[in-house]
Amino acid sequence: MKSFFKTTFACVLGVFIAGILLFWLFVGSVISFATISTTPSYTSKENTILRLKLEGELTERAKDDPLNMLNSGEYIPKSGLDEILKAIQIAKWDNNITGIYLDISNFIGGYASIEEIRNALFDFKKSGKFIVAYADMYTQREYYLATAADWVFMNTIGMLDFRGLSANPTFYKNILDKIGVEMQVFRVGTYKSAVEPYITTQMSEANRKQTESYLNSIWETIISDIAEERQIEKYILNDYADSLVSLQEPQWVQGTKLVDSLLYRPEVESFLTQLCGVENINDINWASPTDIVSTTKKARSKDRIAIVYAVGSIDGMSSNGIISDKLVRTLKEVQDDESVKGVVLRVNSPGGSAFGSEQIWHAVTQLKQIKPVAVSMGDYAASGGYYLSCGADRIFANPATLTGSIGIFGLVPNAQKLLSEKIGLSFDEVKTNRYGAFPTIERPMTTDEKQKMQTYINRGYDLFVKRCAQGRKMSVDQIKNIAEGRVWSGKDALKIGLIDELGDMQKATEWIAKECNITDYEVTEYPKKKSFYEELMNELRNGVSQSFMRLFLGDEYHHRKILEQIKQIDPIQAQMENIEIE
């Protein structure tokens, strides 16, 4: 028997060691492959077309994602807005690049970010070079981007989705009831709708009103831009939207002048060869944004403008969002760097922790005393995202940016049923004072605790409003009239004084340069992007920890995960509703 156990243990140990060796062999292979594949091999040649293969998710910054396919089960392509914009700008001045080919397929991005790409494309067209757009099937946002091109082509049996905007929030109340979690909600602001998914099953009238308002504002921008480029009256475009274009015959779509021609892909390639003045497609050199950006020599100057990225939820459960203490350190770093003459804070955030937002706001105001600070808003700069923005010298936003949402709410879960009835735990408590066990998710809050919590939320809201009033040089009452948690489009935010100017990050950078009285400067981005190896180690570390939790907890893993997420929620939030515009 002893021999049996020794043999069994040796086998298990051998398999374990072999597994570790194979694991690190895999890691080494991935790193080696990445090193080879990321070595710049592109050189500028005549008859080059910048091919913008627009597919998958549009992110604020391009980054390596080593385990993309392993984590999701399928490869999810991602495109970095920063890389796309840089590539377009470089292509404008590269004499070897004859034009841009927008090759569009299942591209997902916010309308404000798409506006930035459109603006860059229009700037590119000043060079006299061509832009051709093609898709087998256009979604509405893809088509909006494509209308910046000189020619818009669609597959002969393709489809164009053009039907107006919609917002479809998801409500969690029923599922929370099923798992035994009650969300105890505290808020200030009639329009502060971020709490609604937890306490109701449909939109409130106030939320419906604000959503209709910003959707109509963004839609007006979209159809005005399309009308100008396609030479179609806005009322006619609205008629088309009401005709369910996606189910119409492709020939009907062409007849409306929404697209220029219906072509198969080889015919588009033939058209490109004509534009380049070559005989066949093999005579064209193709370049991707990564190709162009990777071979660009960085400008060297004694003066620098810092672009500091603040992207994602503030102090949320994801490590990919804004971590307030790290961002504060970054802002202090650029403040102390004498070579940095001014700062553009790029904000693309729906908000998050009210405490974290206050810390970042303070860092911005300290920085502003030393050097000029401009905020460039992306798709979202709402609630906490607006909180950390309002202290800047000047705020830029795109017309389709969602901003404002000046309001505070608190969420304290009561997981008594989940813990006791679903999982089977029981609790007791011993305390020296009345509130010794506050807060807890193990029981509902008392009336007294709820009153004190609401007072705390009210105080947080008053501070938020005060910060906005200070930054925007308005009275507290003026801010309160446009606050109440209401979300505004960038275009409407300009009218009411929440922002200073409509414009993208390039415009914000130019404003900083003018304020600093510099013309020759280097743009430096913060925080520094992680290397492929750093990204790989981070992903592997997270993946291994999750795997071990599943192994040891078994069926209890999912319950434990829900419990950990509940515990990690910052109870005081300055965050807008999680809503996607379709």
Give the arrangement of secondary structure elements.
Elements lengths: L1 H36 L10 E12 L8 H5 L5 E3 H13 L3 E12 L2 H15 L4 E9 L1 H7 L4 E10 L12 H7 L2 E7 L7 H4 L5 H26 L3 H8 L8 H6 L5 E2 L2 H12 L8 E3 L1 H6 L9 E8 L12 H13 L3 E10 L1 E3 H15 L4 E10 L1 H4 L6 E4 L4 E3 L3 E7 L1 H8 L23 H26 L3 H7 L4 E3 H7 L4 E2 L2 H12 L5 E5 L5 H22 L3 H12 L3 E4 L7
Parallel strand pairs: 1-2, 1-3, 1-8, 3-4, 4-5, 5-7, 9-10, 9-18, 10-12, 12-13, 12-14, 13-17
Antiparallel strand pairs: 6-15, 11-19, 14-16, 15-19
Helix pairs in contact: 3-4, 4-5, 13-14, 17-18
Number of helices: 22
What structural category do the secondary elements indicate? alpha/beta
Overall mean pLDDT: 86
- Pick out the low-confidence regions: 18-24, 34-39, 68-73
Shape: globular
Radius of gyration: 27 Å
Helix share, percent: 40-55%
Assess the beta-strand content as a share of residues: 15-25%
Largest sheet: 8 strands, mixed
End-to-end separation: 66 Å
Number of strands: 19
